Structures are given as C-alpha cells and as structure tokens.
Amino acid sequence: MTKHQKRLSVPKSWPVERKTDVFTVKADAGPHGEDGVPLVVLLRDVLGYVDSKKEARYALSEDSILVNGEPINDEQRPIGMFDIVAFPGREEYYRVFPDEGGRLALTEIDAEAADSRLGKIENKQQVSGGDTQLTLHDGTNVVVDEEYSTNDSIVVDNDDKSIVAHFPYEEGALVTAVRGNHGGKIGEVSEIDVTPGSGSNIVTVETDDGGLFETVEEYVVVIDENFTGEDGDDDE
Asked: Are 184 and 158 part of one and the same domain?
C-alpha cells in the first residue's frame, strides 16, 4: 500500500498547500478517520520543526512530542479536531481547532489546558453492568455511569480519562462549526429545527456581531466560552 497521497485529493481540512507538490504523506490508520492529518505534516508544514520524515522519526524517538498526553512514535499517526499536541521540552502546547473554512489549525494553549481534551458525543450504547459507552468524534470510547446525550460535548482528562466537564447541546449553547461553508465560525445556538425522518436537523447559530448562519447538526460542536484560547489563556 502506498505511503503517499496526492495533495489535490486530501480532505479540505488538511493544512497543506495543494499546488506546491504532487504528493504528501498519507496518514496511518487510527483516530479521526479520513480527516486525520499525519503528525509529520503538522511538524513539517505547519510548525516547521522538522524538514523530513527522518527528522520527525528522530524527534519522536526521544518521546519529546505528546498527543493527548501520550508519547507518539509514529510520524504518520492521524491528528485531528481537538487533539492536544504538546512539546514539554519547549513548553509549547497546542490544540487542533478549525479555522475559517474548517481547515485545521493549531491554537496555542497553556500547560494546564493541555491536560484535557474536548470530545463530541456521536453515539452511545448500553454495556454490561448497566453503564453507558460513549463514542466520541475521533472514535474514542468512554464508559460512564451518568446520563449524557448525543451531540453533547465532554472534556476528558488525558491522564485518568475521567470526565472533567460537560457541555449540553441545546439552544443557547456556544458552538463552533467544524465543516461546511461556515467552518470555523463561533456563536450561540438560537434554534434547532428537527427534521422529520432521516434528514439532518438544521441549526441556526447567532454570531457575536449579530449575524446568523445555518448548518446541519453534524457540523457543529459545543464548546466552552474560553475554549478557543484566543488570549493564550484557556480555563478549561
């Protein structure tokens, strides 16, 4: 199986230039499905910390790069929305967050905020013992003994995997659009229009400037009011 992918065919969320070269690195199997960006792409094309896969492998062999609190040794490990990429030796910490147009970008955060990550609940099911298993947007499973709803967001501690915050999906919730024409926009849910049958529900979101936009429910994620870390100081 080829380890390369044509730049013109990569997902729109990937932070790569599509016309500079023909090929880029292909992500290995893992979290985030086809939307996952190979870690080496962030290290090389976004941060400029390495010039090649060989340099990326060397950096990873030193356990100097953490993803969601765990050292990574695969330069093609998929990185996606809301992952935490940390460089403890540099005292640099980043959250993967959609910018305008839904393209993934790195938002700098502080060390405390890097201890946990946000996940959107996309599915839930009962498991043995009466507990509930939540499946998050990146494929992670979390077993809980409390009630949560699909489309809610939770914040999971990177160390013990406990849930440290819960943001319900409801009118008045702060959300960000992560895909579609409004990707990267942030606002409050003003209306949730439930579509009969199997069609997607339509969400109307009001932005800070009083503007409105509509998108499908699958494209919005509930976030905390301090979540974007625009001031470099996140209080998650």
From this structure: no
